[in-house]
Write a structure and sequence with these properties.
Blueprint: E1 3-4, H1 7-23, E2 30-36, H2 40-56, E3 59-65, H3 71-82, E4 89-92, H4 102-108, H5 120-128, H6 136-147, E5 156-160, H7 167-176, E6 180-184, H8 191-196, E7 200-203, E8 221-224, E9 228-229, E10 235-236, H9 241-245, E11 250-251, H10 258-276
Parallel strand pairs: 1-11, 2-3, 2-4, 5-6, 5-7, 7-8, 8-11
Antiparallel strand pairs: 9-10
Helix pairs in contact: 1-10, 2-10, 6-7, 6-10
Length: about 280
């Protein structure tokens, strides 16, 4: 059976590291989280981020806005937060009630306060290998691999999904670590063939049962990023966990795998932003 990659325990370790650094700082890092509308899942995520800030000693502010908030009002708020020295990171919880607003809103966040790593300047820094904020989920995956002694160099990494939040940056981070990377998506023919070739398989599609046991190579590392609900309403990922665990060398559970690490890496990015702004 595969070694289970315990994201919950590792996230606690990472937050402990951040908290230790923050406790020694004279000026504390500050994070502003903006929630537009009343999406229940988004509310859960925001509450979790607030708890993480409290654990790490990071100052946090929440702005809970109605779904009717205009784009202009949202941009004005971001502009105000951009100018505040006590706020080092700005996070707008996605999705927005009006998805068409997302690009302009994300562009409005100062790149040095973009702790989600979604601004084109930070994306460009990822592409060119320069220092910058990395998206939290793929950054969390890389920290998990490091913690469990899994070196991507020379391995074939197959990424399922091509989103700007996970799939694309995950592929770039693996490439930066000298993996050979294949990105698969909804138009990829014979998906199973590519999966069976993967030394490291990262699935971030959001489709229950997408990856079956026969699609996993013997000894592969399986990273399940997705958060789905099965027919009984239970949280699950893209991967048939029991079947895959019988063949994989390492595997992440859902829940308790990548999810906690995503939030932990937000704390890392917020600390990084505070350092960037001269706080010590």
């Amino acid at each position: 059976m595969a070694i289970v990659i315990d994201g919950k325990a590792l996230a606690a370790k990472v937050k402990g590291e951040v908290g230790a650094e923050v406790s020694a700082m004279t000026a504390k890092p500050g994070l502003a989280v903006i929630l537009v509308g009343d999406d229940p899942a988004s509310r859960v995520y925001v509450n979790g981020k607030k708890r993480d800030c409290a654990e790490c000693g990071i100052y946090s502010e929440e702005y809970a806005l109605s779904a009717e908030t205009s784009r202009r009002e949202l941009l004005d708020l971001i502009g105000e937060l951009n100018g505040r020295a006590d706020i080092d990171g700005i996070l707008v919880q996605l999705p927005l009630p009006r998805p068409e607003d997302e690009r302009e809103v994300l562009l409005a966040i100062r790149p040095d306060k973009d702790v989600d790593g979604f601004h084109p300047e930070n994306v460009g820094r990822l592409v060119t290998g320069e220092p910058g904020f990395r998206p939290c989920t793929p950054a969390g995956v890389m920290r998990m691999l490091d913690e469990y002694g899994i070196d991507p160099e020379g391995r074939h990494c197959v990424v399922l999904g091509r989103s700007n939040i996970v799939g694309k940056p995950q592929a770039l981070m693996m490439l930066a670590r000298s993996a050979t990377v294949t990105v698969c998506h909804s138009r990829t023919p014979d998906l199973a063939r590519y999966c069976r070739e993967a030394d490291i398989l990262v699935s971030a599609v959001g489709r229950t049962g997408l990856v079956t046991g026969d699609m996993v190579k013997e000894g592969a590392v399986v990273i399940d990023v997705a958060m789905n609900r099965d027919a009984d309403g239970r949280l699950c990922g893209d991967v048939d966990y029991e079947a895959a665990a019988r063949k994989a060398s390492h595997i992440t559970p859902v829940p308790g795998g990548v999810g906690p690490m995503t939030r932990a890496m937000l704390m890392v990015n917020t600390l990084q932003a505070a350092r960037l702004h001269g706080k010590n």
